Amino acid sequence: MRPRGGHARARGRSADHRGRRLQALITPAPRRRGPWGSSTRYRAQLVEAIPAADAGVRASVISAVLIGVVLGRHLLKLEELRDAPPEQISALLRPCLRSLTGADG
Question: Is 4 helix (H, G, I), strand (E, B) or coil?
Fold first, then answer.
């Protein structure tokens, strides 16, 4: 029987080490060098493009909304979202995204 508290070798190691190990297990090998690089660049581009004092918060909200839609459609396979045409999803998101980017005036 295994001791409580996880694998015996994991005890005594830092949480950071365990986190890096977990990330290595779930990150595809070719992307391990910089799995967050492209998302960081994308967010930086959003922040630059948003003419508001709280551009960073707005960019983060946009990213969270889009990640949620992608996860709901492809990973969770929410029936209505999965079956909706991309054009309909875009049309529903457009007012929200325009408001967050300041493009609506």
Answer: coil
Q: Could you tell me which residues come within 8 angstroms of residue 17 by beta carbon, excluding any fewer than 6 positions away?
A: none
Percent of the chain with pLDDT over 70: 63
Residue 17 vs residues 10, 30, 77: alpha-carbon distances, Å: 9, 21, 33
Report the alpha-carbon distance of residue 43 to residue 86 in Å, rounded.
Answer: 22
List the one residue out of 10, 8, 40 whose CA is nearest residue 25: 10
Report pTM: 0.61
CA atoms within 13 A on the CB side of 9: 3
Spatial distance between the Cα atoms of 80 and 17, rounded to a whole number of angstroms: 40
Q: And the tokens for 24?
A: 């290595």
- List, for residues 27-77, the tens digit of each pLDDT value: 555 554 555 567 788 888 989 999 999 999 999 999 999 999 999 999 999
